[in-house]
Every structure is written in C-alpha cells, then in structure tokens.
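job 3f2a | input accepted
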Amino acid sequence: MSIRTRYDAIRRRYVDDVVAGAELASRHHLHHVEPAIAQRQVAVVLVTAGVALLGITVAQSGPVPPGLAEATTPEFARLARWGVVNVAGYLVVPWVALRLIGLRVADVGLRRPPPGAWVPYAWLLALSIPFVVLAAGQPAFQAKYPFYGLAPGEGLWPWFVAWWAVYAAQFLGIEFFFRGFLVLGLAPRFGIGAVFVSVVPYVMIHFTKPPLEAAAALVGGTVLGFLALKTGSVWWGVAIHVAIALLMDVLAL
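job 3f2a | predicted structure (253 res):
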C-alpha cells in the first residue's frame, strides 16, 4: 500500500467518517427532539462549563489547609489541593449537571471503548514522544516540570507517588470535561463543531504552560475530540494523557 493510499484511508476513517457520522447524528437528534429540549441541553452544558472553569480558577487561589501540609509535605499539600479542585470542577460538577438534562456519564464518554479503539491513540502517543523529548531540553520545560518539586534528599516514596495518584485522577477529570461533557454533550446540537467549541477553553487552560505545550494543546485537543466522537469513550484519552505526563516528569527528573 502506497503512502498516499494509506493516508487517504486514515483520513476517511478518522476524519471524513467522523464528520459525516457526527453531522448525521446531529440532524437526527434535531429532527426527533423538541427544539426547547435541545437548546436546554446546550445551555446546561455551556453554562456548567463556564461555572466549573470559573470555580476552579477561584478555588485554586485559596489557602492550603494547614493540617494537610503538616501531615504530608508543603509541596504535596499544595499540589494535592490543586488536583482535588480540578477533579471536583472537571468531574463532579458536570456529573451533577448531567442529571438535569437526563444524560448518564456513559453517554458522555465514561463507557468501555470499542474493540481496537486503542490503535489510533497508540499512534498518537508514538508521534508525540519525539516532540516531548525535544521539548524536555528547553529551559521553560525544565522550569515547569516535574510539577512536584522534590526537596533536597526527598525520595519518590511516599509523597511523589501519592501526588501522581492525584495527578492521574485529574487527567480523568480533564478528558471527561473537554472530550466527554463538552464534545459528546454538545455534538447532538453542533455536530463536528462541538470539537472546536471544546478546543478553545482547552487551549486557554494551557496558557500558563510553556508555549510549545500550549500550541500542542490546540492540535491534541482537536485530535482527541475527533477520536472521542469516533469511539464514544474518553478512557484511551485518559491513558495517553497520563503516559505523556509521566514521560515529561521522567525526562525532567
């Protein structure tokens, strides 16, 4: 098979077919659902997204519970608080909103991926690794990662490892929020446009990251949005997010 033939096959499977399927499903939804109900779902999803993002921003500026810092380490307390706030905003708040519009978490990504769904994610991870390795040598990257700054003489156990459990959980929240709640929650109304609606806030939460990482969020958010529409699941998106973040921390260390 030639490179052009393979490219055309990939484009049809992961772009053309996804766009056509999303648009067909959207037309079917709008034809069979009352306009007021369709608009209500859009309003609940978008307003909830705004409230969640605002709440996360405000909550992150609060003080670290002193008891937590004393029982662990100041660095773990600071980052664990950050992670818990993200999980609450990205996962718990949308879950509550879903109940208002009669959707289940399985309807917006928390369902078992179909067989073979891991393949494009594996390719995406493989393509990402060289760029992560190149970025690891940049001063901006070294200044940002690893998130958990080990104190002199501090080992990885227990608090670095405990932090990583929190870190992984917030990636579940991020994928559920952006690729599940926003993409799959808005696709019945906007079709493929839901992907691009979700990409805007996704890039914005990366504004505090190194510029190359923020730029990668634009591409990655779009690709992951298309894959979420194709598979109806966000679990492999969580896996690739965790894998890349782990590689970034390992390279920084």
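job 3f2a | DSSP finds ten helices and no strands in the chain.
job 3f2a | closed
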